[in-house]
Amino acid sequence: MKKRNYTIILGTCLLGFLLQTLPLQSQQLPVSTHYIFNSYSLEPAFAGAYDDAAVYLNYRRDWGNIPGSPKTFRLNGFGKVHDKMYLGGEIMADNTDIFNRVKVGLNYTYRLQMANDQFLSFAMGGNFYQSVIRLDQVNADHDDPLLKDLDRITGSNFNANFGLVYNWNHFHLGLGLPVLFRSKDAYNKGADSKFTFDRAFLMHISNRFKLDELWQLQLFGVYQKTNKLPEVIDISATAFYNDTYHFGLMYRNNNTLVFGLGGELIDGFVIGYSYEMGFNGVYNGSGGAHEITVGYRITTKKITHFYDADARKKRTTPVRPVKPGPKPVEFNRR
Predict the structure, then answer these.
(1) Is residue 329 part of a domain?
(2) Backbone phi, then psi, for 191, in 5-degree steps?
(3) What are φ and ψ of residue 260, in 5° steps?
(4) Which domain covers residue 304, as residue numbers?
(5) Among 157, 233, 236, 312, which lies 20 to 30 A Cα-Cα from 249?
(6) Which of 204, 182, 214 is nearest to 311 (CA)?
(7) pLDDT of residue 311
(8) C-alpha span between 265 and 278 (Å, rounded)
């Protein structure tokens, strides 16, 4: 009986782990495709690149047709605290069947101007992770001595992150370490932690090109690699209209396509939605992945995401022509 229950618990935990990691090609943490318009979610060093402050609420659901599939909630944002300094953070809650993880992070960003229209941003931060496996939800005999006094397995981790972004006009090049330290392997003798992390690496490049007075095209490439796990590569193209509305297409190297759209509803309030679909493996019949983000941006900058703010206002506000009035009549008073 004990051997049977050991097998059930191990199998359930393994299933939860696979559900947690497969959509992201075996990455440690869930990933979002909405960095297209919320670049801070990809790299905290993006703080201040476009806005003085911003806050975003994100929800993602993978494999909607599969019970127990991953669901992720995120709340992240930043604010300007000094001329060149920004503070930000993120709260994330991720659930995959019996596996739950909560992340609370705090980040500091320093934005240094190197030359005209050239900036170099540094970011560093710390993260706290709380992970739980709910054994009380395992389909097994809970009167068995193995489970009777154990309803869950919990563990806590602290880690750090670092990021660097170079910005020249609308070109960005960045490097990052979302997980800076490798934790001790839980399966090694003498290990203290039941949930471990391995070092992760991030690299990204993007540029936005002006097509005409109303249209721009943004190209974005992202490379993510976790030690001893396959890499994840994103390539996307997004069209922006009047620096307000956007729609685009992304390809991920696990044969996944992402369709996204969004825009600024009213001054400062933004919304974005994307649908992710795959062409093989577990994606067949899974229902794909849905992701939605709402946010609010605050800025006092003259430069918006592409154009000069005053020029944009002049372009979008119609001006009524002024009809010439009657010519003044001169009187001879003599």
Answers:
(1) no
(2) -70, 145
(3) -135, 155
(4) 2-316
(5) 312
(6) 214
(7) 41
(8) 30
Query: Which structure tokens are listed for 324?
Result: 């010439």
Beta carbons within 8 Å of 304's beta carbon, 6+ residues apart: 50, 243, 312
- Residue 90, phi then psi, degrees to nearest 5: -150, 140
Domain membership of residue 330 (yes or no) is no
- Total structural domains in the chain? 1
Whole-angstrom Cα distance, residue 200 to residue 27?
Answer: 9
SS (H, E, C) 84-105: CEEEEEEEEEEEECCEEEEEEE
Residues 108 and 90: beta-carbon distance below 8 Å: no
The DSSP result for 126-191, as a single string, is EEEEEEEEEGGGSSS-TTSHHHHT--EEEEEEEEEEEEEEEEETTEEEEEEEEE-SPPPPTTSTT-
Please give the pLDDT value at position 65. Answer: 77
Let me know the angle formed at the C-alpha of 203 by 201 and 206, rounded to the nearest 5 degrees. Answer: 160
Distance of alpha carbon 261 from alpha carbon 264, whole angstroms: 11
CA–CA distance, 219 with 36 (Å, rounded to integer):
9
Q: Under a CB-based contact definition with an 8 Å cutoff, are residues 273 and 46 in contact?
A: no
DSSP tally for the chain: helices H, then strands E: 3, 14
Residue 321 lies in a domain: no
Residues of the chain with pLDDT under 70: 1-27, 140-149, 184-194, 281-285, 301-334
Q: Cα Rg for the chain, rounded, in angstroms?
A: 25
Phi, psi of 229 (to 5 degrees): -125, 155
Predicted TM-score (pTM) of the model is 0.78
DSSP 8-state secondary structure symbol assigned to residue 308? B
Q: What are the phi and psi torsion angles at 204 (to 5°)?
A: -150, 155
